[in-house]
Each structure stands twice: as structure tokens, then as C-alpha cells.
Amino acid sequence: MIRKDSARPVPPKHERTVRLLEIMRTRRLKSPDVAKMLDRSSQTIRMWRCESKIIPDHALTALEVAVAELDKRRADEAKKRA
Q1: What is the pTM of this model?
Q2: Which of 3, 44, 55, 79 has its Cβ near the most Cβ atoms within 10 Å?
Q3: Please, what sign has the CA dihedral across residues 54, 60, 63, 68?
């Protein structure tokens, strides 16, 4: 989010937004990826990212579970290849 009177980005304020952005950054997920995991629209994810709306706690928990399952699947696939 960028202020109109400044070129510097404004850091997110809500802890759930910070967590969402952290998950997306560390896993290299885009809004459509998260939308698919949560069965939401990409527009909804973008609204959560820019804090037009705050991601609900249950949605963040569901994302964390989905990401953990994805990590486990990737680790299992890597073991099979090794």
C-alpha cells in the first residue's frame, strides 16, 4: 500500500495481514494461488493484502494448514526422487 502523498510503502498494520504477506512471500505464492487454496476470488486476496479488508482468522488458519500440507507433499516428492 502506498500513500498518495509519498512514494514510500506503508507497512501493514494488522498482524494477520503481516502473516498473510509473510506466507505468500516465503512460499512465492501469488493471489490466484492463495485464492485457489481458500476457494476465494483473487480480488478478495488482493483486498486482504492491501488491507481494504482484514483476512479473517479462520481463513488465515485454513491457509496455514493448506501450506503445511503443500510443504509435506513437496518433501515427500523430494524423498521419492532422492
Answers
A1: 0.80
A2: 55
A3: positive
Residue 10 near residue 3 (C-beta atoms within 8 A): yes
Which helix (H) or strand (E) segment is 38 a member of? helix 31-38
In whole angstroms, what is the distance from residue 79 CA to residue 12 CA? 37
C-alpha cell at 65: 494448514
Q: Domain extents for the chain?
A: 15-81
CA distances in angstroms from 45 to 7, 33, 59, 66, 80, listed in the order given = 23, 10, 10, 15, 34
Third-level CATH fold of 15-81: 434 Repressor (Amino-terminal Domain) (1.10.260)
